[in-house]
Amino acid sequence: MEAVTRVGGTAYPWGAENVDTDVIIPAHWLKTITRSGLGRGAFETVRAQPGNIFDDPRYAGAPILIAGDNFGCGSSREHAAWALVDMGVRAVIAPSFSDIFSGNAFKNGIVTVVLPQEAVDRLVEVARTSPVTVDLETMTVTTPYQDRYTFELDPFRRRCLMEGLDEVGLTLAKDTVISNFEERLGVERPWIGGRADDAGLAVEGAGRA
């Protein structure tokens, strides 16, 4: 997972409420066995509408999406987060998120920022013409117009995002501890550690006893 401490630039000033994961990535895209390319299907039904925000050249490649309440509701498909990452989105700002979507977003390096509706409305207005910045170090969302909104994030998630640690990365960070444990286990309980010869002797000895 790519580390993220600051996401700044153009933002999609969408603001739509109750956007479910089938809108983020339609079900027929779930047949893929790879994460790459899902950005092409992101918001497919929205993009079918003339003048939609996702095909507006002013916001092309925007790393931030500003949405409405209850973003990511519906199906638990992780493909929704994959599609957002593939289209370049690294942060989503909304008044609230579906719990499952929020978890999937975190696991894929997307910062989910919860702000009051009034702040989101203001950011939608600003984003139509100016950049927005999400900063994990200061835990703020700012604009060139001196707007400054603080947000909260679980400390563990914040650390993982800033250090680029997913489940695999967290496990590898414990490599020394795991190796020491496995070495000790091989001595103390060889039948568990996979030392077949020692395990056989242990069983034979137990039988004679």
Characterization of the model:
The protein has 209 residues and is an alpha/beta fold. The protein has helices spanning 21-24, 44-47, 79-86, 99-107, 117-127, 155-163, 167-172, 175-188, 190-193, 196-208; strands at residues 6-9, 11-13, 64-66, 91-94, 111-114, 132-135, 140-142, 148-150. The strands form two sheets. A four-stranded antiparallel beta sheet has the order 1-6-7-8. It is globular, with a radius of gyration of 23 Å. The model has no long low-confidence stretch (mean pLDDT 90).
Short description:
By secondary structure, the chain is α/β, with parallel strands linked by helices. The chain is 39% helix and 13% strand.
Keywords for this structure?
4-stranded antiparallel β-sheet, globular, 4-stranded parallel β-sheet, alpha/beta, 209 residues
Radius of gyration, whole Å = 23 Å
Strand order of the largest sheet: 1-6-7-8
Helical content (DSSP H or I, runs of 4+): 25-40%
Alpha-carbon distance between the two ends: 53 Å
β-strand percent reads 5-15%
Structural shape:
globular
Uncertain runs are none
Average pLDDT score: 90
Structural class per helix/strand content?
Answer: alpha/beta
Let me know the number of strands.
8
| Oligomeric nature of the chains | single chain
Q: What does the largest sheet look like?
A: 4 strands, antiparallel
Helical stretch tally: 10
The secondary-structure element order is EEHHEHEHEHEEEHHHHH
